[in-house]
Design a protein that fits this description.
Layout: H1 3-15, H2 19-29, E1 30-38, E2 41-44, H3 46-59, E3 63-74, E4 77-86, E5 94-102, E6 108-117
Length: 121
């Protein structure tokens, strides 16, 4: 899978509100033992990743993740910026930068996220 497709599917998994569909999207994109870490979360495994995404959706209902700028990739590493915005449009409540590593099968094995703008608590 080319980096743009992988990032699109990654963001789609963050935007999937159905837990069952989100689990399927995560299984297609993330390796079984993947992990994710950012300043607010640290989780491992698809089940915890799905639960974390569900929690983010509960904190920001009606919002979606969108890609900002382009994707930079080399070898099995890619980086990209994203924003969390109201689905109907408007100002982002969060902006971040993720660095992802893929495994030999092309699935995401880990993501290290940075928050440039975080939602107010």
């Amino acid at each position: 899978m080319v980096p743009a497709q992988l990032v699109e599917r990654y963001l789609d998994s963050w935007n999937e509100t159905s837990a069952e569909d989100r689990d399927a999207a995560i299984a297609a994109v993330w390796s079984e033992e993947a992990w994710y870490v950012d300043p607010l979360a640290s989780v491992a495994g698809r089940e915890q990743i799905s639960a974390m995404i569900g929690a983010v959706q509960e904190q920001a209902p009606g919002h979606v993740f969108r890609l900002l700028d382009g994707i930079d990739a080399h070898h099995n590493v890619l980086r990209f910026r994203w924003e969390l915005v109201p689905a109907s449009g408007g100002e982002p409540v969060a902006v971040g930068f993720d660095v992802a590593e893929t495994d030999d099968d092309g699935r995401i094995s880990c993501v290290v996220g940075f928050l440039d703008k975080a939602p107010a608590a």
